[in-house]
Amino acid sequence: MTPTLIATADPDFAPAAVAELQKAGSQGSDELAPGIWAVQLPGDFFALAERWRQQPPIFVRHICPVQTVLPLAEGVEKVVATAVTFFTHLLEPDWPFSVQTRVLGELPIKPFDINQPLGDKLAEASGAPLDVRRPFQILSVVLAGEAAYLGVSLATNNLSDWAGGVRRFARDKDQVSRAEFKLLEALEVFTIELPPRGRALDLGAAPGGWTRVLRQKEQYVTAVDPAWLHPSLQKDKGVRHLRLTAEEYLADYPDTYDVIVNDMRLDARDSARLMGEYGRYLYPHGLALITLKLPEKRYGAALDHALNILRQHFTIAGARQLFHNRSEVTVYLKPKISS
Ligand SMILES: C[S@@+](CC[C@H](N)C(=O)[O-])C[C@H]1O[C@@H](n2cnc3c(N)ncnc32)[C@H](O)[C@@H]1O
After folding, report:
1. One domain, residues 151 and 295
2. Residue 293 bears catalytic tag
3. What is the C-alpha separation between 93 and 316, in angstroms, rounded?
4. Most buried in the list 12, 97, 155, 178, measured by CB within 10 Å?
5. Could you tell me the CATH number of the domain that includes residue 63?
């Protein structure tokens, strides 16, 4: 039976992702590789995609539809030729598209072997322009075992514009920490625009990756961390470093901020409690981001508890386990509108 969709999550959070799929009505799934499932749904892909576009799951990072399954045994050329016939009329000719191929396991094929010929041939046959950077529509191809699973959808249907939710950023020579990618990804995923020349508080800032990203986005940053910041940030006049813990700064009459970010290495619940206390130092138009570090065991209960603590002080505008998150979930918060 043809599966309805392919779903992808971090293998470390597989049980939580499977639970989200079950809640969405999954009638069974086949694990194609760690953290990647072919899923059978009673309804169609687009109904779930629309529900999840409005209210995304936390752990499932990427979904794509399966409209046909082709055998790999006859070779890549045959898959490409059949896919061109099948998908030409399913592409909207005025909208840019791309082909996103993933190869699971040990197969003697590279994504490029499919992306390039299939993209070129489909562009010619359908008239739709090929645009791998900003596609409106995506033909997803997943090669696993002896089969190719293919389906076309809008980029907005897939939870992420990137194949399997793998969002890579170019490394910049002045980068201070890999944690920078986490903040860049969160700003993109939650479509956050920072206020022009805003005042930002960075809790747990050292060595300063998030502070650097905030500075690049024209924020004046108060960085709170007992540890030192990278020398490039120490001489930046737009950065005020307070060598305090977040608890100490809280007791020291903090200022009020447009943006509060918190990447402190603390238990999720302790960090959520502290963040809750900082809620009163966020302007009503402000926004906040926190990474909740999850324990290895019973992480679901710890996450629910931490989210409930945050809900007492903020509106939760989004919560996702991002590609650049390790054992953590990033939560986007807005001030609670009091009635
Ligand atoms: C993952 S690192 C932050 C990385 C940072 N976001 C970056 O981009 O470079 C976690 C930081 O939390 C800090 N931290 C842990 N507990 C803290 C507390 N109670 N108050 C302030 N900082 C704390 C640690 O000193 C450490 O520098």
Report:
1. no
2. yes
3. 38
4. 97
5. 3.30.2130.30
Domain with residue 282: its CATH number is 3.40.50.150
User: What is the spatial order of strands in the sheet that 199-203 belongs to?
Assistant: 239-242, 220-224, 199-203, 257-262, 282-293, 328-335, 314-320
Per-residue pLDDT tens digits of the chain, which is 339 residues long? 899 999 999 999 999 999 999 999 999 899 999 999 999 999 899 999 999 999 999 999 999 999 999 999 999 999 999 999 999 999 999 999 999 999 999 999 999 999 999 999 999 999 999 999 899 999 999 999 999 999 999 999 999 999 999 999 999 999 999 999 999 999 999 999 999 999 999 999 999 999 999 999 999 999 999 999 999 999 999 999 999 999 999 999 999 999 999 999 999 999 999 999 999 999 999 999 999 999 999 999 999 999 999 999 999 999 999 999 999 999 999 999 765
In a domain, 173, yes or no: no
Q: Are residues 159 and 18 in the same domain?
A: yes
- Measured CA to CA, the distance from residue 188 to residue 139 in angstroms comes to 22
> Which is the closest atom of ligand 1 to the Cα of 208?
9
In a domain, 171, yes or no: no
| Structural domain boundaries, residue 118 | 5-165
| Residue 121 is assigned to a structural domain of this protein | yes
Query: Which atom of ligand 1 lies nearest, measured to the CA of 246?
Result: 20
Residue closest by Cα to atom 19 of ligand 1: 245
Residues 191 and 303 in one domain: yes
Which segments within 88-219 are labelled E, that is strand? 97-103, 137-144, 147-154, 199-203
Pocket of ligand 1 (CB under 6 A): 176-177, 179-180, 203-210, 224-227, 245-247, 263-266
Q: State the total domains in the chain.
A: 2
Q: State the catalytic residue, choosing from 121, 293, 334, 336.
A: 293
Q: Are 114 and 140 in contact (CB under 8 A)?
A: no
Cα–Cα dist 211/240, whole Å: 10
pTM of the complete model beyond 0.85: yes
- Please give the distance, rounded to the nearest whole angstrom, from the Cα atom of residue 174 to the centre of ligand 1: 20
Assigned domain for 174 exists: no
